[in-house]
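Retry 2 of 3 after timeout on previous attempt. Resubmitting structure tokens to design endpoint.
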């Protein structure tokens, strides 16, 4: 084995150790030990996607969606099913919702604000606290309960 190859292997190993230590430190620093997620009411839930399979499932088995807590994501409030299904949880993990300012984000947040007439938990990472749009949504609609969680 050449000295150069040995140097590269040792150097790569040390780099990996340093990167691992940095990652562990990030997880520790970003962890919010006092965060309490909403208590689950049932053992089973349904995560609603935004694709064509939801339409087919809803048409063929509409009663199935009333049996369990529903979790929706992303732009679900823009669909025809948002008010019909009234999800109990809404997860926004994409930074575009709090750092972005495009029309889709604005429309999604406006729909949540104006259409949500039931109690709903909005699950967000702590970085979302910086979003003026999301903070206005939370202030204007008392049915929406924000919960900030560690996604690291």
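Retry 2 succeeded. Sequence:
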């Amino acid at each position: 084995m050449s000295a150069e190859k040995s140097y590269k292997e040792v150097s790569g190993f040390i780099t990996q150790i340093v990167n691992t230590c940095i990652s562990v430190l990030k997880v520790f620093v970003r962890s919010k030990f006092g965060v309490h997620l909403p208590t689950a009411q049932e053992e089973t839930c349904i995560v609603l996607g935004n694709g064509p399979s939801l339409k087919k499932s809803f048409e063929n088995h509409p009663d199935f969606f009333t049996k369990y807590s529903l979790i929706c994501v992303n732009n679900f409030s823009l669909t025809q099913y948002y008010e019909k299904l009234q999800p109990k949880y809404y997860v926004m993990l994409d930074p575009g919702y709090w750092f972005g300012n495009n029309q889709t984000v604005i429309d999604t947040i406006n729909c949540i604000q104006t259409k949500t007439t039931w109690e709903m938990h909005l699950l967000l990472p702590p970085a979302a606290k910086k979003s003026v749009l999301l903070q206005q949504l939370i202030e204007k609609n008392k049915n929406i309960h924000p919960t900030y969680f560690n996604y690291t």
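Attempt log closed. Residues 3-30 form the longest helix (28 residues).
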